[in-house]
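#onboarding

Welcome to the new folks! Below is a worked example of what a typical request in this channel looks like: someone posts a single protein sequence, and someone else replies with the predicted structure as tokens. Don't worry about understanding the tokens yet, we'll cover that in week two.

Example request:
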Amino acid sequence: MKIFKALMTGVLSVALLSAPVSEFSLDTGVQKVEASTQVKAMYAKKQVSAYKSRSSKSGRIMTIPYGVRVDRLSIQSSWSQVRYKGKIGWVASRDLVEIKKTEVLDTKKTLTMYASRSTKAKAVTKVPANKQVTRLAVNKSWSQVKYGSKTGWVASSQLKTRYVKENFAPRSYQLKEEAPLQSTYTTSGTTLTSIPKETIVASAERYNSWYKVTFNKKTGWVNGKYLTAYKAPTDAVSVAKQVFGSGYTISGSGYDVTVYNDDVYGGTGSKLLSIKYGSQSDYGKFAQLVTSLHGGDAAELANYMWNARPGQKHWRGVQYDKYFIGADPSGGVMVTW
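Example response:
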């Protein structure tokens, strides 16, 4: 019997030593974490093409519109692999902006940082009073924060906000009243210009209650108290009549509008503007119509449109904000977004 037990022990030992690692594991209570690429939310800062591989010669899979959210799956060199509407492709990383929110807070008093949301959990470290921490998450009355190289949980009630900085997919806002455009996110900054009441502006970044916008080629900050979320009207004909006034024949429905008289002919839809001919003033009115419906700086768009007529400097095409402007092969200018 002793000889039999010895033989069985030897056979078992050999079997364990020779077994593939994947077929045998010892539960030590330590969880193994496999390496992975973190998916990040991004937005396209202009209309971009996504390709099959990391080359513009590999074949275009899709066109990603300006301002839409995409999921970045991985990065290789200067290219990012993204997912948009179920399709996956590669785009130039420089054409993407990360959607992120940074909350920096001060501790009201000396705090104990815990490994989980309980004072009975393991203490990670002590955080002195009046020290800055970065909030990573909130769960009920607890905040997960980072302090130096340490991460853990503290009571939210013992924190006070220092600043919040956020990048987000572009949104349109309308001025509730005339507002100063400041050089920085404070009233003590230099006033760059004033933005008239009812102007529509776009923003993709805020610092506390201040929003970064561009108006008349000047980029600065507007306090959020002057802004309200803008929802584009679907009755574009009414907008066109306000912009152009009398002297023009205006017809259509929804976003489809045709405007003409003896000197100008043009039309716009939900994704396209076409002007066959007209004066610089007419181009300005069409730019105002489009930006009233879809956002942006009317003066800036009008300038690009006027310089995109056949033979002008932008006639081959130029990107401004969400708009791509170029000469119409049959004459005039086309704008798409």
